[in-house]
Specification:
With about 400 residues, this protein is an alpha/beta fold. It has helices spanning about 20-25, 85-100, 145-155, 170-175, 220-230, 245-250, 265-275, 280-285, 295-305, 325-340, 360-375; strands at about 15-20, 30-35, 40, 50-55, 60-65, 70-80, 110-115, 125-130, 135-140, 160-165, 185, 195-200, 200-205, 235-240, 255-260, 290-295, 310-315, 345-355, 380-385, 400-410. The protein has a 7-stranded mixed beta sheet, sandwiched between helices.
Length: about 400
């Protein structure tokens, strides 16, 4: 695709004044300015216009991307110090993000998150690396007018063969007039799917064009590695297995058997293929792999009715709480999953439970799990609590979503 066919952002800046509370938040480095916090602005803007925010004394506070379609009206790019947002600025921001991920390269890993949105100073934008393929995911139309500068900056920082565009559903209408659509190839040709990449020496395949999110869940890499360390000689159940990330790691760690449970048949087929990719690993080849296509709650009931037992149970659900109104229901679901999973776990077995929503504080999640266990007559001894991996840094409270509990059933 020719870069000159992409839209171009306006040169006209929007001047914005905000409430005292918003001033304090921006001085603290928060990456969002909500619509209700704006008390005055110079003119109406288009998606991607640069908004310059001033304090009550007319001093520069921040500059960011204007998004009239979102309650997060301005996504902040730069705080406190004035800056020209151009190719050089993007290059420096991308170079900083790449430097943070440098240690991963020594861990036989070429699949990871290169840019983690707000937490890397590029709000509403994610870039994932899959070996020689980069996937650029946009969550706001405000980025469309800046791709002309961003893509060359990306080329200068990270070598790649292909660049794939993924977009959130709310962007389809905004992007269509420019010939952009989800899953299109922005750079490179004849991409071979699925894309094969390495993570901690294990090989995985990802459909970066049609797969969920960008094709794989890199945020659980450290937790998968921990499962690998604990799986020796165990019978493992992986609930919400998706394409088998935890399952393959368990097998590589010496698990006797691994059962992958997911509601999606195609996802479990992908899990089988990921096992096949690692058959040269003696431990993976020796592990017996079973798949069970089922809703998680129903599947756990089925396994219980069959009197099946495991020495490790991993539960990694999707984000049940995508809004504040869903939090109570989500916590009830996690409590139910905890009770169902522990019925299948042998005494001395390892229980792994993850949660991926920023709507629930870590302590609330951990207490929900331990209370559900205790109320059902089970005693869990915590081994460790984990959070975000190196390539998913957290720089503001709402960015913290991942928490995971490793515990032993007494």
């Amino acid at each position: 695709m020719r870069l000159d066919s992409l839209p171009q952002s306006s040169e006209r800046r929007i001047a914005v004044r905000v409430t005292p509370a918003a001033e304090r938040a921006l001085r603290g480095g928060h990456p969002w300015l909500f619509d209700q916090a704006i008390v005055k602005q110079s003119h109406e803007g288009q998606p991607g216009d640069l908004a310059v925010i001033f304090d009550h004394k007319g001093r520069f506070l921040a500059i960011g991307l204007y998004d009239p379609a979102s309650p997060i009206r301005v996504k902040i790019l730069q705080h406190q110090q004035q800056a020209t947002i151009n190719g050089e600025w993007f290059t420096e921001r991308l170079r900083t993000a790449a430097h943070i991920r440098q240690p991963l390269l020594a861990q036989h890993t070429d699949g990871y998150r290169l840019v983690h949105g707000e937490n890397d100073g590029l709000p509403g934008l994610v870039i994932d690396r899959y070996a020689g393929v980069l996937v650029l995911k946009l969550y706001t139309a405000a980025w469309l007018g800046h791709l002309r500068d961003l893509i060359p900056a990306l080329q200068s920082v990270q070598a790649f063969d292909h660049l794939v565009l993924r977009m959130s559903r709310n962007m389809e209408t905004s992007a269509a007039p420019y010939g952009l659509h989800d899953g299109m190839l922005l750079m490179g040709s004849d991409i071979s799917l699925p894309v094969i990449f390495q993570e901690n020496g294990l090989r995985f395949a990802a459909d970066v064009v049609r797969g969920h999110k960008t094709g794989f869940f890199f945020d659980q890499r450290d937790n998968r590695a921990q499962v690998r360390q604990l799986a020796q000689g165990r019978r493992v159940l992986d609930v919400f297995a998706y394409s088998g990330g935890f399952s393959v790691y368990a097998a590589a760690g010496g698990a006797l058997s691994v059962t992958s449970l997911d509601a999606s048949g195609p996802a479990l087929q992908a899990a089988e293929e990921n096992f096949a990719l690692n058959r040269d690993n003696v431990q993976v080849a020796a592990a017996r792999h079973h798949t069970l296509v089922s809703d998680a709650f129903d599947g756990l009931e089925t396994l219980h009715s069959q009197y099946q037992q495991f020495d490790m149970v991993i539960v990694d659900p999707p984000a049940f709480a995508k809004s504040e109104a869903e939090v109570s229901r989500a916590l009830a679901a996690y409590a139910r999953l905890t009770r169902q999973a522990l019925r299948l776990l042998e005494p001395g077995g390892v229980f792994v439970m993850a949660f991926c929503s920023s709507r629930v504080a870590p302590q609330v999640f951990f207490e929900t799990v331990t209370h559900a266990a205790r109320d059902s007559g089970y005693v869990l001894s915590e081994n460790r609590r984990t959070g975000h991996a190196l390539d998913h840094p957290i720089t503001f409270p709402e960015g913290e979503y991942l928490k995971c509990l490793f515990a032993t059933l007494d």
